[in-house]
Design brief:
Layout lengths: L2 E9 L2 E9 L4 E5 L6 H9 L5 E7 L2 E5 L2 E2 L7 E4 L11 H11 L4 H14 L15 H14 L4 E5 L10 H13 L3 E5 L3 H7 L2 E6 L2 E7 H6 L4 H6 L3 E8 L2 E3 L5 E3 L1 E2 L8 E6 L4 E5 L9 E14 L2 E7 L9 E4 L1 H6 L7 E7 L4 E4 L3
Parallel strand pairs: 3-9, 3-10, 7-8, 8-9, 15-22
Antiparallel strand pairs: 1-2, 1-4, 4-5, 5-6, 10-11, 12-13, 12-16, 13-14, 16-22, 17-21, 18-19, 18-21, 19-20
The chain binds adenosine-5'-triphosphate.
GO biological process, one term: molybdate ion transport
Protein name: Molybdate transport system ATP-binding protein
Keywords: ATP-binding, Cell membrane, Membrane, Molybdenum, Nucleotide-binding, Translocase, Transport
């Protein structure tokens, strides 16, 4: 079910011109600033926007090309947006059964398939409720089941967690991660680097209608090459293998943190923390108290970063390369920091989020 797309179109003064391939069964995250064209890409793939000079093939079928422009319902594409957009007058199970019914399945078989999908997304208990009787998170589960019940060859996810509260978003993210493992080829639009890290094999960063960075998710977000990616990724990220309470890096150091519920011990994981969560001490300084990760490094550089000074490190073990810490100008003065100063970095375990890395 490989997706191969070349899209060109204009919307007023905005021009989109992109080309990308999403290998069968994998997830591509589209990142980019507001107005960079992410939704336009999804709309073009779904057949909701006219495109010119475009060529889109999905699983070898031409969706758009010379003389071809399949209507949306013939593209075998599922779309999930930030709002669940369920039919308000239908129960959860009837919402999910709608797609198989439309595809010509009998009422009984469509209902059976719908119940299977509702079970898959842990929503079977809501089967008989209407959307108005469900929370936002529960509605989104039903919407995921509905999108998958249509057996799409391509799934388009448009900010699927944006409308959810902070309590339900991680559970839905975990759920999507699970269903996408065996799921269809997927294009995900998100503003959140954690979504990309948790779900996407590859990312493409859009700016002004063009792809400016692309590659495996961790490579792109771990080593940003544009200001946008550096800002959205504005995070320290250490890759390794999940342990009970954090992860172990390739060179054997242990990073202690707070594993997300879907982290599996022994599998690839990333520890993510803000530069502002990193405290800086002289080598012989005191840094006791709550559980912390500490590492001895050397100051590579100090540069203004908004109201704070961003310290970048050199030296230390391999995983510490490129870490950054934000300090107040007063702290930089008090510690007499300058390039070459030896320092100890300390990161409270409670500020380190450990997430599964994309498979
Ligand atoms: N109906 C329209 N007519 C003309 N221009 C449009 C229309 N819709 C969007 N645009 C323009 O197309 C460009 C890309 O918009 P798009 O919604 O794809 O960006 P986006 O990356 O999804 O942004 P956001 O993150 O804010 O959702 C923008 O410059 C926008 O102004």
């Amino acid at each position: 079910m490989t997706l191969s797309a070349r899209l060109a179109l204009s919307r007023g003064t905005f021009a989109l011109d992109v080309e990308f391939t999403v290998p069968a069964g994998s997830v591509l995250a589209l990142l980019g600033p507001n107005g960079s064209g992410k939704s336009t890409v999804l709309g073009s793939l779904a057949g909701l926007l006219p495109v010119h000079g475009a060529d889109v093939t999905l699983a070898g079928r031409q969706l758009v090309g010379p003389g071809v422009d399949l209507p949306p319902h013939e593209r075998r594409i599922g779309l999930l947006s930030q709002d669940a957009l369920l039919f308000p007058h239908l129960s959860a199970v009837d919402n999910v059964a709608f797609a198989p019914r439309s595809a010509g399945q009998s009422r009984a078989r469509a209902r059976e398939a719908a119940l299977r999908w509702l079970t898959e997304v842990d929503a079977a208990e809501f089967a008989k409720r209407r959307p108005g009787q469900l929370s936002g998170g529960q509605q989104q589960r039903v919407a995921i089941a509905r999108a998958l019940a249509s057996s799409p060859e391509l799934l388009l996810l448009d900010e699927p967690f944006a409308a959810l509260d902070v309590d339900s978003a991680p559970a839905i993210r975990g759920l999507l991660r699970r269903v996408l493992r065996e799921g269809p080829t997927t294009v995900l639009v998100t503003h959140d680097p954690l979504d990309a890290l948790a779900l996407a094999d590859h990312v493409a960063v859009l700016a002004g209608g063009r792809i400016v960075e692309r590659g495996p998710t961790r490579e792109v977000l771990g080593a940003p090459r544009t200001a946008f990616t550096a800002r959205i990724a504005g995070l320290n990220l250490v890759a390794g293998v999940a342990t009970e309470d954090g992860l172990r890096t390739a060179s054997g150091e242990v990073i202690t943190g707070l594993p997300a519920p879907d982290v599996v011990v022994g599998q690839a994981a990333v520890a993510v923390f803000e530069p502002s969560a990193v405290s800086v001490y002289p080598h012989d300084g005191e840094h006791h108290g709550s559980p912390r990760n500490t590492v001895e490094v050397t100051v590579a550089g100090l540069e203004p970063h908004g109201p704070v000074i961003r310290l970048r490190v050199a030296g230390g073990p391999p995983w510490a390369a490129g870490l950054s810490a934000d300090l107040t100008p007063a702290a930089v003065a008090d510690l007499e920091l300058e390039p070459g100063s030896p320092v100890t970095l300390s990161v409270k375990a409670a500020t380190v989020a450990v997430h599964p890395a994309a498979d």
